[in-house]
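Structure tokens please, single chain.
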Amino acid sequence: MKRLLSFAPLAVAIAFPFLSVQACGPFFFDDVFVRPLRPDHPKLFVQGKLGVLLPTYPREDLAVAYRYLNGGSLTVEEQKAYEPTQSFSETEGIGTTDDAELDGSSASDRNGYAEPPGPADTWLKARNRYAPMQSEIHPVREFGQVYPAGFFLAGSYENCQADGFRNAITTLESRARTWGAKSPELADWIKGQDAVFSHCGSDQNLSWMKDRPVIQPLTPAPAPSGAPLLLRQDRAYQVAAAQFYAAQFAPARVSFQAIAEDTFSPWQGIAAYLVARALVRDAFLSAPPNDSQPLAGFDSDQMKQAQQQLESIRSRHLTGISERAIQELLNLVRLRTEPQARLRELSAAVAGPKADPYYQQDLGDLTWYLNAKLDGIPIRENTDDYNFHIDRPKDDYSPLTVAQKQPGFNKAFSDVADLRTLAPIIDWLITFQSPADGARRHAMAEWRRTGSTPWLLAALAKASPSAADAPALIEAAGHIPSTSPAWFTATYHRERLLIGTTDIVIAGKKTEGIKAAGIETSAQMKVVEEGGSESATNLFRGLRMQAATTLDDALVYAPRRILQRASEEQSAIDECLNVMKNPKRKYNCAEPKIDVEFGEGSAALLNSEMPVAMLAQAAQSRSLPQPLRQSVAMMTWVRAVLLKNEAVAAQMLPLLPEELRQQAGPGVGFQPQLTILRNPGLRPYLDPGVQRSYSYDFVESFEDNWWCSNWRSEYSDGGKSMAPSPLAFLPTEARTAGTEETRRLFALGSADEYLGTQVIDYARAHPNDKRVPESLYLTLRMMRYGCYHGYGGEKPGTDNAAEIAHQVVELMRHHYPADPWTKKATPFVWLGEKKEN
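Here you go.
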């Protein structure tokens, strides 16, 4: 979430409009092995245990890391300012970070079933001890906003904040002691305060024009005749506060100014501060929305007046308002009126190494400003495709390639050159995140110039093994001690570069890079595994797999600890188990009793590089947990059937689940193909994460059944695993064979096309085979619940599939009209109907 404003104590924050959309679901995400958007354990991270820093981390996380890399640390108070982020999949799927388990909170609290009382509830509890009960207060004000482009957003802001309620409670208790708990003065004071807070959540369709109509607030009634001076002074303040909450900022300023000039009022000090607060609020709310600007608009004249007011009172030691509160609001204002000067101050304070007494606001303001400026342009490698503005055919929605994105990355990095020059930490944050060619060159140049740890990590992260500077970076990374916050990142990239290097000179001795990496990684894995970051451990295991010298050694590191199960494959297991609550429904699905799965990189390498003969060895290796061995066996058996490799199919048959063994029988002919048709979780590849083979005979509801023509993209991680390729131990001839087999499998197309064609050919050649009607029915079922599906009779994805479906229906109608399987296929017959032009 973007951070928009950070207001001081007793301030009323405004969060600018956001769009809340409830879309259809469910939503599926990749199973997580390396968290790309936050560290694994925020409480450890903020203490300096950084793990492997990723350029996809939010800038707030990287700014925290920079303080440690810069030779500083965070105090306990500064650590409290850090708020870890969550990905959408986490908030939708599990609702919390795993650090909730470390703070003693209950499961129901962590999952949002219980909420602690808010400030408004605390006020009501105190108030209701002295007056008739009032049930609720809504601190958030809702409003509508129409942008120049014509779109409408429902917005809201927190009109009455925590400090306002705390201030009211303090005053209530004080007045009860002064006047008495049952006094008419206290009762009248409470009525006045109720009127104030009645404006907190009232809906207002605020116009965003300067001449918006005045909305008359329900101001507190005047104090009774003969009321004590203190009640009259309180009432004046309550009237001003009601005007403020009712968005009547000009009258509120006049009221607060009058109180500030009353030397006898207990509210004199805070009123002087609130004159500025009213100016700030009005400055934001009176500016028209501008959908072409990344930063929220504001009235510059009013903002400058607020700055003058704050500067005039910050050293006056006013009663009722702290100098810190004044300074924090002034800091916020100056970020708008003097952005460059304020950014330099923020950067120096956040970067350290000295402690920052305003760290929470400074960190938030710095990252808010950078996010507002940068998030709409392709600075980060995970920038959404629509930010690249590439002309493409109208119906082309395919993901952009790295080559297509690179010009956009390069331009964006060049365009923010002036922003980068404002401060070293800003330069580092932008450069570390950018995949631009210029960012790589700049990181190396800055490391050469400064020799600093932050720039060493940036240069390491961007270097390729073939780069001329790789040896120097490898050597420098080797000098980072294991006690350094930079050790994990430096060591990871050092090993990555070593593995990709043919020959390397280490300590004056020339050796093969892969061998050096293998030796050093072995010695360091224990340190990594004890370091507290599961993501880092998984990344290093990927390197160790690359450096393996034997198949068994590679398989030891192929499984990775799964950190979040969010995939459709996991959903298939959950759905299957739920369906089996009906005792009449029986399937072979079960949650595997292991906490590891094949990671993205390991699945991709096993799928694309190993020939079936070597996959057969992997399926029998004790280096893998049994559930993964069986998944490899099932995948290898499917490949063998598709490739007509009878020898490997025979090897894998005894390793299949018993029911599959009984169905499949020997060979690679029609019966094994029929078995694949019967079991939608069978496919010629391993899934990255939870395996679909865990629920192999269950037809899941969202078309993750069998395989599609683009099935290679299902396991290709696009480099996200950061693991280099290929596998070092794999002989050239084996890799060539594996690559060729994968090419042949991919050329067969989708299951719909390949299996459908095989069934039609067999049916025509063996029309009296009793298995044929079932196979025709199963083909239509596959086309309904696999890639072809074509909801509501819409045009199928491929002409081949459409023709196959038509031929299957014709065969059933003309050759097997009375067969029970034909009757059972009735709901799917529409798939094969010819459409009239």
